[in-house]
């Protein structure tokens, strides 16, 4: 598996999804095969999403790399992730923020949250906190955040997430611009307002917003 992990990381570097050495190191270190169902482990290092149960997926590795690069996640950052899923994305970010940073990750499905929590704990990621909640409301107790990553497509940018983003912070979020068409956005919160960039078309599960 380690050789296949190395081949995948090298492919993502060649294709331009990975630009920083620290992102390559994180992708090399985190064992993706432990974040997918046992019956799918042989496909863990194919660059595609895989089902993880409960109607959810683990994102393709190139998308994980692209999002952490776009969000500029680095050492010491306090990060909020909306959509824990298997916990793989959180593990990559935990490697990037290091012991002086922290990742708070929200999952609305309790069973997935508990599985991710156990998996991350077993792998030694004590700089990750898994929360069961409605991700569109964020997690105010640990706000403000340097970076926010959302791994489910929103119909609009949730205002509560913007409130919890630091001035100077970055949010990366997929938005459904019209039925069946999603675009990944990069939002930088500046003192004078929001700088919004459309990055590329994507396909994510929908973000469920509770009333």
Write a structural description:
With 211 residues, this protein is an alpha/beta fold. 29% of the residues lie in helices and 30% in strands. Helix 2 packs across helix 4.
Q: What's the short version?
A:
By secondary structure, the chain is an alpha/beta fold. It is 29% helix and 30% strand.
| CATH architecture type | 3-Layer(aba) Sandwich
Number of strands: 9
What is the end-to-end distance?
43 Å
The CATH C-level name is Alpha Beta
Question: According to CATH, what is the topology?
Answer: Rossmann fold
How many domains in all? 1
Secondary structure layout:
Layout lengths: L1 H13 L6 H9 L20 E4 L2 E3 L2 H11 L6 E5 L5 H10 L4 E6 L2 H13 L5 E5 L12 E6 L8 H5 L1 E14 L2 E10 L2 E10 L9
Parallel strand pairs: 3-4, 3-6, 4-5, 6-7
Antiparallel strand pairs: 1-2, 7-8, 8-9
List keywords for this structure.
211 residues, alpha/beta, Rossmann fold, seven-stranded mixed β-sheet, two-stranded antiparallel ribbon, 9 strands, 29% helix
């Amino acid at each position: 598996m380690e050789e296949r992990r190395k081949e995948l990381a090298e492919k993502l570097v060649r294709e331009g999804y990975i630009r920083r050495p620290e992102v390559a190191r994180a992708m090399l270190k985190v064992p993706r095969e432990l974040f997918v169902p046992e019956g799918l482990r042989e496909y863990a290092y194919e660059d595609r999403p895989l089902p993880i149960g409960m109607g959810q997926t683990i994102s393709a590795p190139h998308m994980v790399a692209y999002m952490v690069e776009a969000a500029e996640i680095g050492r010491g950052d306090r990060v909020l992730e909306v959509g824990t899923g298997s916990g793989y994305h959180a593990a990559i970010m935990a490697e990037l923020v290091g012991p002086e940073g922290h990742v708070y990750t929200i999952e609305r499905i309790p069973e997935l949250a508990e599985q991710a929590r156990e998996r991350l704990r077993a792998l030694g990621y004590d700089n990750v906190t898994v929360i069961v909640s409605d991700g569109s409301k964020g997690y105010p107790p640990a706000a403000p955040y340097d970076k926010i990553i959302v791994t489910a497509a929103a119909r609009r940018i949730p205002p509560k997430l913007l409130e919890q983003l630091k001035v100077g912070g970055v949010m990366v979020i997929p938005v459904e611009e019209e039925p069946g068409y999603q675009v990944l956005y990069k939002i930088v919160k500046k003192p004078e307002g929001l700088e919004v960039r459309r990055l590329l078309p994507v396909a994510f599960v929908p973000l469920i917003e509770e009333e």
